Amino acid sequence: RALSLYRQLLRASQTMPTPNRRNYIKQKTQSEFRKHASLTDEEEIDFQLRLADTNLDTVLVQAEHLSRLFNDPEYQNYN
Fold first, then answer.
1. What angle is formed at CA 59 by the lines to CA 46 and CA 43, rounded to 5 degrees?
2. Distant-in-sequence, close-in-space partners of 5: CB < 8 Å, separation ≥ 6
């Protein structure tokens, strides 16, 4: 389950519309999974997996929202 979430988060990072955001999510995902790789407490593992799942949902929603925003001609007029 952890490996699946890891891969999904890395794939989701590529859906971000800006290179900075893509890199941030990729690096954050890698560092968080490395940091928790040695966990042995089942409750803590379950918590971290649920947190990763929530983060995946957040990344997907943000990517969709930001992509729509950056493609909106009205937004382009503000930059």
1. 5
2. 49, 52, 53, 56
